[in-house]
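Researcher: Here's my situation. A collaborator sent me these components and asked whether they could plausibly form a single complex. I don't have experimental data yet, so a predicted model of the whole assembly would be a useful starting point for our discussion.
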Amino acid sequence: MHVHEKPTFESNYTVQGGNFDEAGKVASQIKVILKKLGLQTDVVRKAALVAYESEINIVSYARKGTISISVTPGQVKIETTDEGQGIPDINLAMQEGYSTATSKIREMGFGAGMGLCNIKKFSDYFQITSEIGKGTHLKMIINIENGV
Amino acid sequence: MDLETIATCLNLKVFSGFDQLKTEVLDGYTGDLLSDVMANSKEGDLWMTRQVHQNIIAVASLKDHAGIIMVQGAEPAKDTLEKALKENIPVMGTDLSGFEIAGRIYNLLKEKQDITRIDP
Amino acid sequence: MTLNEVIEILDADVLVGQDQLEMEVKTAFGADLMSDVLAFAKSGSLLLTGLTNPQVIRTSDILDIAAIIMVRGKKPAPETIRLAEELRIPVLSTKYILFETAGRLYEKGIKGCVERVDNNFARS
């Protein structure tokens, strides 16, 4: 990992919980930026997907949250922090098919217990921590093979 | 065409309902939203879905589906399998995507109809 | 196959993208779960879905889906249309159910964009 490299791009976005009409807007913006930076299609796709599923999680389960992205020549790092109910049992939450989604979330095509699995699957590094009553923190890294 | 023929033609794994495989498949339904499947599928449909939750068994049972196919390598969750075995609902699985399996079953069922039409 | 041919096969209406109907498509993915689409659908494919909310458009944008086919004759809300126009993603609507839509396209040579799941992700 190239953690000490100076970022070529950095930004933070605020996501409002419960605002389903806007959900995905930040991920779309991130995708456009990464494309403009000239990253490989594969990296852009993974990063946009990871950002999108994380954004859906914030909108679905938290009051509000932030998504921060930092791009260095070697990697794309995406972190999300939310103010929400937190996850009581992370192992259970990481199980495919496990979900606490409301019917509203399910109607949108999410909440089938696949989101966190997707985030993990498409990240080269994935870390999740959560505190009951406070919120959840995700850290994802996607490696860039040949630099920007 | 019965479930057994379809399962053999398309190399499906059978998880439950082993003695129900002579059930006639009248048509197919593809869907992952239980409310949609409840509202729009019909009796005798073979239901293809990516859902693994145990509620799918109740839906298939209520709607008198011929059976369920879990697509894309999905397998029934533990409680789903238990419920399927208990209620004797045929649950099968394929590694094919939902589109691909729907395409193949649609054309299998259609071929059969065409043959029936020519030679009743 | 062009979108024009898809429209003919499915007797579909064009909701967005009247000027993009010469677009070529070869593969498709059908699902109602957006996370499923995100995990498995490939860029340049058709997306067949029973959903009509703006997240269908967002998901398609993230993956560079070629065009969306909304099944069962469902008409999307104005904000879905607006977003598809903004992101220039063609949206078609057919009265057929997802099973029939997939069957008709498959019959005419459209392939699944992932034919088989070859990793253990789906089983994990």
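Model: Some features of this prediction you could bring to your collaborator: The beta strands of chain B are 13-16, 27-30, 45-49, 67-70, 91-93. The helical segments of chain B are 3-9, 34-40, 55-62, 78-87, 98-118.
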